[in-house]
Amino acid sequence: MLKCILKFFLRALKILIPVTDLAAIKQSGISPVHCAAAGAHPQCLELLIQAGFDVNFMLDQRINKHYDDHRKSALYFAVSNSDLSSVKLLLSAGALPNQDPVNCLQIALRMGNYELISLLLRHGANVNYFCRVNPLHFPSALQYTLKDEVMLRMLLNYGYDTERCFDCPHGDKVHPSYTVEGWTSTVIKDTKVSPQYWLYSLTVIICGPGTMAINRLHPLSPEAWLKRS
């Protein structure tokens, strides 16, 4: 049954791709590539990439505001899902790994996924990315590697700037007496993956002359489709 559902998705996508209006996709603020990545459908994603859809199309602000982390890229969705197949497809097609407010590498480090971390680093993920939550610029990635020597070595091998760990903007001067929160769930929003409930009923209609290219494309797995039916 699951194979039948997936085959239906692929057949429908093959029919819809040729009549899709790319200008309307831009106007909608979300790409089919996002939907395929969010739903963890690597086969659909591969079809879209082969058809020339832009893997670096960014979610419009009116769409990404629904997420606490303000994600933009399809790659971020794939990394958040730990979907290695989709991540490989996107990176091989030229997806840029440093386009989101919270770096994709940060998400992979939080999950402790060695394969994802290695893959992102090999494709140029910024190893020295940091979240400015206080006056310091202590590299954020380090918070996830303090108890994991393997991850720490991976970061060091790709140019991790250890000097930032000892750099303070106040120097030898007296430090302000106020306190800062540091890394807490109230400051860094990459400590949780935002739900996709609002996408379940999202209707993206891409119109050309008398055509409807995408209608109610849900980022659900075949298993989820069976549960809802």
TrEMBL record:
Record-linked InterPro entries: Ankyrin-KH/SAM_domain, Ankyrin_rpt, Ankyrin_rpt-contain_sf
Transmembrane domains' residue ranges: none
Keywords per UniProt: ANK repeat, Repeat, Signal
PROSITE patterns per UniProt: ANK_REP_REGION, ANK_REPEAT
Pfam families: Ank, Ank_2
SUPFAM superfamilies reported for this sequence: Ankyrin repeat
ANK repeats: 28-60, 100-132
Domain of life: Eukaryota
Signal peptide positions on this chain: 1-24
Name of the molecule in the record: ASB14 protein
